[in-house]
């Protein structure tokens, strides 16, 4: 048995390691002489003297894979210019011609690394967007999803990417990502953001929120007309800031954003704690348009005056509620309110999460201006996509029970590279000890938690993603946002105390329309979760064991369920009369452009 598991693992290893890690990014710094300043919307395009016909061919006219031709004519972008059809790119300037400068974009020494180099992508050979299916995504799962918007003059949603003017370069990257159709949150959020509106978006896990905030930011930077950024100082002036609660999530957003912005001239840099700051400073000094950061490291950079937020035009907070849970509120308020960032109204602000407790909605009301609230219900069938099971298991039996589950998975052929298991535990010590025990029992496991060095955390994640180590034991540090393909089973070895955390944890499987399994070990220690867990499962059409229903009925007095005004958000807080009383100047509008779409539900989560 041991050997067959080991064999499966070994077979899964070859060539799959993820070498696109963040900290060791090797962007060649070629010795090309420093070129004259080129505004970002004109970067990538051939010199004016060259006939545009060569590059109007855009997608079909170049191959950007390393070693396959690449740049010609001294252009660092080698004919990759594919935005000729875009409004504002014509003639000698267009919308974005004004005053870009300083350390933004790629106008400098570096050659842009192809973030698709390891992917099996031939987007150039693909036709324009059509109804062909994306690899694996089950779009039927997204039909009839209840969507609620509130706020004034809500821009209408779109059905296809082709309906949105994102520009050819970004469209090509979307095809390279194999996104054929926008997911529901993208259908609504992208037009809202492109219209310049602030947005608070609540959408289910794994539904494509990252692209929903990245696309409008990238597109806005490509076409915007921004004042010149100061030169000759060692401070950088990003135009967009994306804040996220964990290092790994920042790394992931950075990787995604780099794909979306490839050859658009927009440069993305990440800064997060636990990794050498000098390396991040060097990256920043090469230019930055979009800065992805964790709050702690960003405060450090601001205090050292390495970064100024003076030019920020776009602010996105991903997993905003988690940042509050982690105690980041002082840092976030410092970043957003007490440094030099333009105030609400002068910048565009977006908040995204799958859960929005009241606390974050109150903070949002300070950060957002005339915003639209968007709640996209759980993917209609995500209830079916993530099968949730809860089993009564005493603490002393948990290990043997876990062993049984893993054995059962193996017996069912659910193993190897394409079936990863993520096991959540309560404590860092517990994580180490369970990892050790699994390894001792012949199950290759690794662990990720806050006591490991950042390098160890990243190695663990890479090893898990690649399938080299198909079991990852994690604390909540891995609960939010991480998008790891092939997580087939999430096991809550220790349940969290908070139902929001449960939602995010199980959301590591069943992503992008794919199915998944989530098993929870429940016992007397989890009584405080009984009611909300039973409610959540019922709402998701899952089988709720009778014993859990009984526990839920007896749940301690004062333990609020999700519907009882508990932490679980999902409706526009501006409707709350107590909130409105204290904030009478706020702009809540009902009706008009707002309303409930699909399904007729009052709200996704209510
Ligand atoms: N339009 C699309 N078509 C196909 N796949 C998509 C599309 N948009 C996003 N995806 C894929 O769906 C997966 C989930 O996306 P993402 O990580 O942005 O979800 P999320 O909503 O941020 O999840 P979480 O709440 O867990 O953070 C990713 O693998 C992403 O590449």
Give structural notes:
The chain has 606 residues and is of the alpha/beta class. The chain has 19 helices and 15 strands. It has helices at residues 2-13, 53-56, 168-176, 184-194, 209-223, 247-260, 277-285, 295-303, 320-325, 329-338, 358-367, 382-385, 398-411, 428-440, 454-466, 499-506, 527-539, 546-554, 577-582, and strands at 147-150, 199-203, 240-243, 268-271, 290-293, 314-318, 348-353, 372-376, 386-392, 420-424, 445-448, 471-474, 487-492, 516-522, 595-597. The strands form 2 sheets. Strands 4-5-3-6-7-2-8-1-15 form a 9-stranded mixed sheet, sandwiched between helices. A 6-stranded parallel sheet has the order 9-14-13-10-12-11. Strand 4 (268-271), helix 7 (277-285) and strand 5 form a beta-alpha-beta unit. Helix 4 (184-194) runs parallel beside helix 5 (209-223) and helix 8 crosses helix 10. It is globular and about 65 Å long. Mean pLDDT is 73; it is low at 1-103, 125-136, 379-383, 557-569 and 577-606. InterPro entries: DEAD/DEAH_box_helicase_dom, Ded1/Dbp1_DEADc, Helicase_ATP-bd, Helicase_C-like, P-loop_NTPase, RNA_helicase_DEAD_Q_motif. Residues 190-374 form the Helicase ATP-binding domain.
């Amino acid at each position: 048995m041991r050997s067959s598991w080991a064999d499966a693992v070994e077979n899964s290893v070859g060539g799959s390691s993820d070498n696109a890690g963040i900290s060791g990014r090797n962007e060649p710094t070629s010795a090309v002489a420093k070129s004259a300043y080129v505004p970002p919307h004109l970067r990538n395009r051939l010199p004016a003297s060259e006939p545009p016909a060569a590059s109007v061919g855009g997608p079909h006219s170049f191959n950007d894979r390393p070693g396959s031709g690449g740049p010609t004519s001294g252009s660092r972008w080698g004919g990759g210019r594919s935005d000729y059809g875009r409004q504002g790119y014509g003639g000698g300037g267009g919308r974005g011609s004004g005053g870009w400068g300083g350390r933004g974009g790629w106008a400098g020494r570096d050659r842009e690394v192809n973030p698709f180099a390891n992917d099996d992508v031939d987007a150039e050979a693909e036709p324009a967007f059509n109804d062909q299916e994306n690899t694996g995504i089950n779009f039927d799962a997204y039909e009839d999803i209840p969507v609620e918007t509130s706020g004034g003059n809500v821009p209408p949603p779109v059905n296809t990417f082709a309906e949105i003017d994102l520009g050819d370069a970004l469209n090509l990257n979307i095809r390279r990502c194999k996104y054929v159709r926008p997911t529901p949150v993208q259908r609504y959020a992208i037009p809202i953001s492109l219209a310049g509106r602030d947005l608070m978006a609540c959408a289910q896990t794994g539904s494509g929120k990252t692209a929903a905030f990245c696309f409008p930011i990238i597109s806005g930077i490509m076409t915007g007309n921004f004042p010149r950024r100061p030169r000759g100082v060692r401070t950088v002036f990003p135009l967009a800031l994306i804040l996220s609660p964990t290092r790994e999530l920042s790394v992931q957003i950075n990787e995604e954003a780099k794909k979306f912005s490839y050859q658009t001239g927009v440069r993305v840099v990440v800064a997060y704690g636990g990794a050498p700051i000098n390396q991040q400073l060097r990256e920043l000094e090469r230019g930055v348009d979009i800065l992805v950061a964790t709050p702690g490291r960003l405060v450090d950079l601001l205090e050292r005056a390495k970064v100024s937020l003076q030019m920020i035009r776009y602010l996105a907070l991903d997993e905003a509620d988690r940042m509050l849970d982690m105690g980041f509120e002082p840092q976030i308020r410092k970043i957003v309110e007490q440094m030099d960032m333009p105030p609400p109204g002068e910048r565009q602000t977006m908040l995204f999460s799958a859960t929005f407790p009241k606390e974050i909605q109150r903070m949002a009301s300070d950060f957002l201006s005339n915003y639209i609230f968007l709640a996209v219900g759980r993917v209609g069938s995500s209830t079916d996509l993530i099968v949730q099971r809860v089993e009564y298991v005493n603490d002393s039996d948990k290990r043997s029970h876990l062993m049984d589950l893993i054995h059962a998975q193996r017996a069912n052929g659910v193993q190897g590279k394409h079936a990863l298991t993520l096991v959540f535990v309560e404590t860092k010590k517990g994580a180490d000890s369970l990892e050790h025990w699994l390894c001792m029992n012949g199950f290759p496991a690794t662990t990720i938690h806050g006591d490991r060095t950042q390098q160890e955390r990243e190695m663990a994640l890479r090893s898990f993603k690649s399938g080299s180590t198909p079991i990852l034991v994690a604390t909540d540090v891995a609960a939010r946002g991480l998008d790891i393909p092939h997580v087939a089973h999430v096991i809550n070895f220790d349940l969290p105390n908070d139902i929001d955390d449960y939602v995010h944890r199980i959301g590591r499987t069943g992503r992008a329309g794919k199915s998944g399994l989530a098993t929870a070990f429940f016992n007397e220690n989890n009584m405080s979760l009984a009611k909300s867990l039973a409610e959540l499962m019922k709402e998701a059409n899952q089988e709720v064991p009778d014993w859990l229903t009984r526990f839920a009925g007896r749940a301690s007095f004062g333990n609020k369920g999700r519907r009882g005004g508990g932490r679980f958000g999902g409706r526009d807080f501006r409707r709350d009369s107590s909130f409105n009383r204290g904030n009478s100047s706020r702009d809540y509008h009902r009706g008009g452009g707002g309303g409930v779409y699909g399904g007729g539900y009052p709200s996704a989560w209510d």
